[in-house]
Write a structure and sequence with these properties.
By secondary structure, the chain is α+β, with helices and mostly antiparallel strands. The chain has eleven helices and 15 strands. It is globular and about 60 Å long.
């Protein structure tokens, strides 16, 4: 199909984008366009105005500030994937992005767009939760920083206020004893996950001193398996304990039925992906 008629404006700076959002009712930001444009073609979304932020250099770049890795929202997936800083400071992003869609999408799609869209099937929301990331937002009332945990509220629903723009993603750099894991089940290359799970662990010898388990596409939005985290935290991981954690993850899931499978199948696969990712993360921490 063909999208409905819309105006197009190209923003030259963050403040220009914010001003254009304020001047145009129901305007939408367009970054990589992989989520918004298909919805417009199907007329699931009919914004009267698009504001293109691709030319804003302030939204690009990757750096380290203190103990935080700072990623501009307009970096493409491949720019993040190929960044030596990301590989060194937060390898979970590197490994997870390899499983995001396909090379063509990764050349154009942006990490900020993936996060801000709030799609439960997107990879990055759950990754942000596992990493305990912070999101920097700018709008008419200025700049604010909000934790990723609590930002995702429902399907395509986030804590971003009207007129705000996601400008940066801030991720704690990897510490000694930290390991990452990511497991994702999908039918074919480029497809959304049937279920996926990014995991962060911090080890103290053989004991898991801290753990965060993100879950993808098994609820109205990305979320953390907090009951399973609480069970595993402070313990040596055994097969029996992982089995108990898997049961708690299944109970926490609420996926929709679709061509990828039934709710029961998706929930069981979420538990399996989480258990695999936990094992990966523990091995990663030991190495």
């Amino acid at each position: 199909m063909i999208p409905s008629e819309f105006e197009y404006h190209k923003a030259t700076s963050i403040q220009d984008a914010i001003a254009k959002l304020a001047e145009n009712d129901e305007a939408k930001i367009i970054a990589g366009g992989h989520s918004l444009l298909p919805m417009m073609k199907l007329r699931f979304a009919e914004p009267p105005c698009l504001i293109d932020i691709n030319g804003i250099e302030e939204l690009r770049g990757i750096s380290v500030e203190g103990d935080m890795l700072v990623i501009g929202a307009m970096n493409t997936e491949n720019e993040v994937l190929n960044s030596p800083l990301v590989q060194e400071k937060c390898s979970l992003l590197t490994e997870a992005i390899k499983l995001v869609a396909d090379p063509q999408v990764r050349n154009r799609g942006t990490i900020g767009g993936d996060v801000a869209h709030g799609d439960p099937g997107n990879d990055h929301p759950a990754i942000m939760l596992a990493l305990d990331a912070e999101l920097v937002l700018e709008g008419p009332d200025g700049k604010r920083t909000t934790p990723a945990n609590g930002f995702f509220l429902g399907t395509y629903w986030t804590g971003m206020e009207e007129g705000e723009l996601l400008t940066q993603i801030r991720v704690p750099v990897r510490e000694q004893g930290v390991g990452y894991g990511y497991a994702k089940l999908k039918r074919k290359t480029g497809d959304y996950a049937v279920a996926g799970s990014p995991v962060y662990v911090k080890m103290n010898g053989d004991t898991v001193s801290d753990i965060r388990i993100g879950l993808t596409n098994v609820g109205p939005c990305a979320f953390r398996a907090e009951a399973a985290e609480n069970l595993l935290r402070g313990n040596v991981i055994t097969d029996d304990l992982l089995k108990e954690a898997g049961a708690l993850i299944i109970d926490a899931c609420d996926p929709a039925e679709d061509l990828r499978g039934s709710p029961e199948y998706k929930s069981h696969m979420a538990a399996e992906m989480a258990k695999r990712a936990i094992r990966q993360a523990i091995e990663d921490a030991r190495n």
